[in-house]
Amino acid sequence: MKKIKVFSPASIANLSCGYDVLGVCLENIGDEITVKKTKNKGVTIKNIQGQNLSTDISKNVAGVSAIALLKETNIDYGFEIKIKKGIKPGSGIGSSAASSAGSVFAINKLIGEPFSRKELIKFAMEGEMIASGYRHADNVAAVLLGGFTFVRNSVMHDYFKLNTPIELAFAVIHPKIELKTKDSRAVVKKNVTITDMVSQSANLGAFVSGLYTENYELIGKSMNDIVIEPMRSILIPKFYETKSACLSEGALSCGISGSGPSIFALCKGVSKANNVANRMKEIYNKLDLEYDVFVSCVNDQGVKVLKFK
Amino acid sequence: MKKIKVFSPASIANLSCGYDVLGVCLENIGDEITVKKTKNKGVTIKNIQGQNLSTDISKNVAGVSAIALLKETNIDYGFEIKIKKGIKPGSGIGSSAASSAGSVFAINKLIGEPFSRKELIKFAMEGEMIASGYRHADNVAAVLLGGFTFVRNSVMHDYFKLNTPIELAFAVIHPKIELKTKDSRAVVKKNVTITDMVSQSANLGAFVSGLYTENYELIGKSMNDIVIEPMRSILIPKFYETKSACLSEGALSCGISGSGPSIFALCKGVSKANNVANRMKEIYNKLDLEYDVFVSCVNDQGVKVLKFK
User: Whole domain around residue A233: which residue ranges?
Assistant: First the structure.
């Protein structure tokens, strides 16, 4: 294999009750990453379509993750990367994770797959470090493993995939304001009461139970964030109005996607998710603010090969 | 049915990673509660064997829970309760929960089962309120539902049963010092950092996942308490020495049972649990302190009828 093109999808981290723990992989929206082998060693980024991002490999997440991977190999050739961004940076649906994970997934294929998808997570986390200032695995685990993923301990590289109830579908609105993960983390207070810790962790545990037992009602009511959402929602226009509209339309839950500003609503069934997406649009149409809305089932496969030669 | 005798078992709350959330029901150790119908309305406690406890129905947990149940019925007769305590109060293995849950379970049977086992939890919680000053459901849910139980929200009466991997077995040591739940709660600090909340909740979620996937390694490593155990362990003699010995003997995990002073070790297989129980004894034999040690599989049935007429 000399050249490969992969599709690296968007993802939603946190999912209300699992701050820095939960992630889910989405369909359709994502980055296309093409990597070809070069005679000269090292990594170059030839071009980036769709977004104005640095092609400096020490600043671009796809370059940083690729270098991290290659440090653990003995490859005597190099790689040229082209990126077609389908996700806007700062949208809260895993833009950096898609490029970071897509790059290492493609290179791993080109060098004969010495690493498993799970082993690639640690390299992709280096891209997240450059993008947001901390090594979080919640988005990249979702992109690489697919489905709903759980980060027990990112330092110990302890992450795994959960069960995916087949009827779940997301409606997502991305209000076009840029919110850097760094800034969105800054508004999160440093301490919580034990009482709030118990409630928040009970919701996370109940959500996990709901996924395995495919109990949609339990999944929905457990996606409740009493710690982070009250702080971060102030950065997102019409957050509570949107949430209230989604829930009254029958969404199982609604919350902030990752560090925002995107808002997700989880629904039972694509048809319901389409209705909920329309309610999101109605609210944002009243504002003088551009937005994107899309609907996605859970992508149980994760990043995938589009073509190779 | 005029008279019924039930066996109401011991239970372990918290299970390291699920403070105020998790519980598990044990076998063999428990209270025997006999209830007979009386012509005169109201509840009396005729006698209590095995422990010196009040027979005043407003002070005894079995009386308090019974009264709470009867308030929601229109029964024109009464009940006389006899209790044979198999669990020492203040041991940390659900003494009050066993009496409280056993009493309402027995009375519910005598009056034709208007309530489900789950519906009985709220009445049994009133007994817990008298015993420890707060309405916690973690022990009583385990006794009434059996197996591993999860309290998502005790105020909303939202609790459910988890999956029970069949090979799990507990070794438990009860050092004979009395530790009131009230006092043991007093040493718990009021706040935690967000970082600790994330770690603690990640362990709870991972533990739940481990139960469903029957992943014994994940179950063990997730039973890690970085918030409560460091504070409460100071009240328990030789806690860390015991924990270390249990883990080196091959226990999956070791922690404080409920609010202590009992220490539990979770093992894969009864034979391993027996070996671990012996290590517990070795450590406590060096102290001038009485103790009980026992081994138990998970009791998936919960409180049960022994006989009736």
Answer: 168-297
